[in-house]
Design brief:
N-(1-d-carboxylethyl)-l-norvaline Dehydrogenase, domain 2; single chain; alpha/beta; about 325 residues; 15 helices; 10 strands; Rossmann fold
């Protein structure tokens, strides 16, 4: 049995590294050149420099290796790339278990990544992996937990057997859509925290932002028919705290750069990796039109997509200090 990790960014590489401690792992890359670079140096210098990869890990160009019937698939590509990837996988998969570590929604349909995978690969059990999982910290050997969420508990049991390790252990949930919602939404709040940090608004202000952000999580969950219990678990509150407070959070870093006067495109370029909170903000923009009360999400989204690349500090502060429950 092999584990195929599709996506050689910092998160995919970190997962491939820790899963290879007791499994044979193939890390799928975008090119043969990239795969050779990783294999020759035993390091992914493009995305997570300093992590020396285990010997059981082999980088391969995507779609150049066979997938056996009992192999396990882990997907860790950016959300915008997942729909097309799932279509390409149709001719390569039968009913292999897929663990989706990609966070986000499909903008024009409001489908989660798990729902996209289920639609395009209906014979494969889909499991969502999420939680307070800052890749850099795990790569440094710091332990944490994640949630494996699926309606197929037999598939989860099989996956845990191979994925459980000394750095990343798992809780189990059947609320896959709720877990995916939390994973997607927390990035927007982390962007707001980064903006607040750049403006030196203080910890009191940041605590307000996180509290009201969690409240709006619940509003969106209610609208989408999701169990509120998930919001207050490690896939919700736990992931929110980690993403908002960690200096290694790309969402927070992006927000910090916005607060320092960078344009959206300049901030994205400086971060150097996909910022999923920006992708999710595009989706959230449509919820206001459906009469969902999310003023905090709205002001952060407007800040991100301001045509001039800037924002009104006064409006941002006013949104929090005059927030009405």
């Amino acid at each position: 049995m092999k584990i195929h990790v599709i996506g050689a960014g910092n998160w995919g590489t970190t997962l491939a590294h820790i899963f290879s401690k007791k499994n044979e792992v193939l890390l799928w890359t975008s090119s043969q050149e990239f795969a050779d670079e990783i294999n020759n140096t035993r390091e992914n210098k493009r995305y997570i420099k300093g992590l020396i990869l285990n010997g059981n890990l082999l980088a391969v160009k995507s779609f150049t290796v066979d997938i056996n019937d009992d192999d396990l698939i882990v997907i860790a590509v950016p959300s915008y790339a997942l729909p097309e990837l799932s279509i390409h996988l149709q001719s390569h998969l039968k009913n292999q278990i897929i663990v989706c570590a990609t966070k986000g929604f499909e903008n024009h349909t409001l489908r989660t990544m798990g729902e996209v995978l289920s639609a395009n690969l209906p014979n494969s059990p889909i499991i969502a992996l999420s939680g307070p999982n800052i890749a850099r910290e795990i790569a440094q050997g710091k332990p944490t937990k994640a949630v494996l969420a699926s309606e197929n508990l037999i598939a989860v049991t099989k996956a845990i057997k191979y994925l459980n390790n000394d750095l990343l252990s798992f809780e189990v949930s059947r609320d896959i859509k709720g877990v995916e919602l939390c994973a997607a939404l927390k990035g927007i709040i982390a962007i707001g925290v980064g903006i607040s940090d750049a403006l030196e608004l203080g910890d009191n202000f940041i605590s307000l932002l996180m509290t009201y952000g969690l409240r709006e999580f619940s509003e969106i969950a209610k609208f989408l028919g999701i169990d509120r219990k998930t919001i207050y678990g490690i896939a919700g509150l736990g992931d929110l705290i980690a993403t908002c407070l960690s200096k290694n959070s790309r969402n927070r870093k992006f927000g910090y750069l916005l607060g320092k006067g960078y344009s959206r495109d300049e901030a994205l370029k400086e971060v150097g990796m996909v910022v999923e909170g920006v992708q999710m903000a595009k989706t959230i923009m449509g919820l206001e039109e459906l009469n969902v009360s999310i003023p905090l999400f709205s002001i952060i989204t407007k800040t991100i997509f301001n045509e001039n690349g800037g924002f009104s500090e006064q409006d941002f502060i006013k949104c929090l200090t005059q927030y009405k429950v």
